[in-house]
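Morning - 2'-deoxycytidine-5'-monophosphate inputs below, output right after.
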Amino acid sequence: MVIAIDGPSAAGKGTLARRLAAHFRLPHLDTGLLYRAVGLLAEKSGRPAGEVAAGLQSSDLADPELRTDRAGQAGSKVAALPEIRDKLLNLQRKFASQASGAVLDGRDIGTIICPDAPVKLFVTASTDARAERRYQELRERGVDTIKPRVLAEMAERDRRDSERAAAPLKAAPDAFLLDTSDMDADAAFAAALAFIERKGFRSSGP
Ligand code: DC
């Protein structure tokens, strides 16, 4: 079983992906980390992004700095380049084709990476709800910021991710739309699980 989860930043797709992966005992790939790692490594080393993407190692994905907004913006910029998307395609498809099945989350999983996934979720939330979540998350991490700045950076990244020509952020026609604006993580998980179980998939565990 492949579960494809797409949506804009801070909509709750990462948390949902991790919970579904644990529930169904599936490996999980946060594909945003790939773009973040390529963007940040290229920026810091001055090496061409294509070269970084071609040589990307799984150990490159463990850097805590990948969670920063600098890495998010750098990732969003390299993600607009078709050459980079091509270089990261096989790695993602290989992950999705494991015998166990897999959960992948990103922007183009249901449309480009796994168009045949039996379960597709498009997780979204209002810009305000997403900015508020990101703001709280940054404060909890001790980052000194203000909400208008978080909102502006999010709007810039949303625009770049949705308006680019190469694999723009959009829901697959057969995706289940989950608006988490008024949901907490438990409610989002329950709604996604109900959809997946209606499709006939159940966890084999106790
Ligand atoms: O989900 P995230 O914020 O970690 O993603 C970082 C950037 O990577 C995001 O702005 C867009 C890009 N991205 C993408 O284009 N395709 C994906 N499948 C995942 C992320």
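Note: Residues 147-163 form the longest helix (17 residues).

O.
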